């Protein structure tokens, strides 16, 4: 089988990281096209990869005959158009979150894909490919904790980019806990409340950080999340599930080297999500490439979260943003999955 020819659209931090991983570690694929709104950045990168071209217009890159599949790492507001183009040209696409920037357009994308009768869209919720999350899911699915009742999560970033506002803490950071909840528990989130503790004095002026989120799920499970994106310390993502028969926790960085020295014990901190989830991204992209290669034999062109998961995340985050304003629990407004055949 010949290598899958991938166009990577958007070669900022995430896109460039995917280009590097495909070139160095992913089997059965190569980067044939790169694109960025900063054209020189794409041109410079293309020049370093044998057989790779820079194409200035993202829609031309999607349509290009030398492109079999697409990775979208472009800014969220451009996703809707680019996803619809991928559907139009029948190109499998791995879309970094968000699917689109609002609930209505996310639903539109879900419906358009469902009309095609085959799944072409995968959404980049990489935690599903992390070994620790996979182990936690296996414990739950094998009934080793009994029925899960409660989940406690912490999501801490040392810092965020300067344009990060309070609603982005919900849409860009908390969204991962939204997906983890839906993944681990296999049910939808029905309400969200955001509580605003005293803000970190070291956070930029006006940023509500930290935030405490409380989710309720369809069967009544409780999830609480501390999201704190300006700790100045380390990237810390911890998840504890409490069930009827026991509890389990992940995210303690136990796999990292701990080195003692006279008078100290200590280890390494995880600086960012690139390191914490580096292996998960590799697994995510390799499995996606394999699924796309196998897709022509009749299956879906995905092996992971699908467009519906992107829509559900958008609906929960919209409720979260409304609660950020009101402080009250807000019901999640979603259509039923069964109402869209093939979703
Ligand atoms: C970032 O965009 C990510 O997706 C990271 O996984 C998350 O931890 C971080 O908070 C976000 O800003």
Q: Outline of this structure?
A:
This protein is α/β, with parallel strands linked by helices.
What does this 3D model show about the protein?
The chain is α/β, with parallel strands linked by helices and 343 residues long. Helix content is 36%, strand content 20%. The chain has helices spanning 13-25, 39-46, 58-63, 79-89, 103-116, 131-141, 166-185, 273-276, 278-295, 307-326; strands spanning 4-9, 29-35, 53-54, 69-72, 93-95, 121-123, 148-156, 189-195, 211-217, 222-228, 236-243, 247-250, 330-331. The strands form 2 sheets. It has a 7-stranded mixed beta sheet, covered by helices on one side. Helix 1 crosses helix 9 (278-295), helix 5 packs antiparallel against helix 10 (307-326) and helix 7 crosses helix 10 (307-326). The longest helix is centred in the middle third of the chain and has 20 residues, at 166-185. The protein is globular, with a radius of gyration of 20 Å. The mean pLDDT is 96. Bound molecules: (2R,3S,4s,5R,6S)-2,3,4,5,6-pentahydroxycyclohexanone.
Secondary structure: elements and pairs:
Layout: E1 4-9, H1 13-25, E2 29-35, H2 39-46, E3 53-54, H3 58-63, E4 69-72, H4 79-89, E5 93-95, H5 103-116, E6 121-123, H6 131-141, E7 148-156, H7 166-185, E8 189-195, E9 211-217, E10 222-228, E11 236-243, E12 247-250, H8 273-276, H9 278-295, H10 307-326, E13 330-331
Parallel strand pairs: 1-2, 1-4, 2-3, 4-5, 5-6, 7-10
Antiparallel strand pairs: 7-11, 8-9, 8-13, 9-10, 11-12
Helix pairs in contact: 1-9, 4-5, 5-10, 6-7, 7-10
(2R,3S,4s,5R,6S)-2,3,4,5,6-pentahydroxycyclohexanone is lined by residues 157, 160, 172-173, 176, 229, 273.
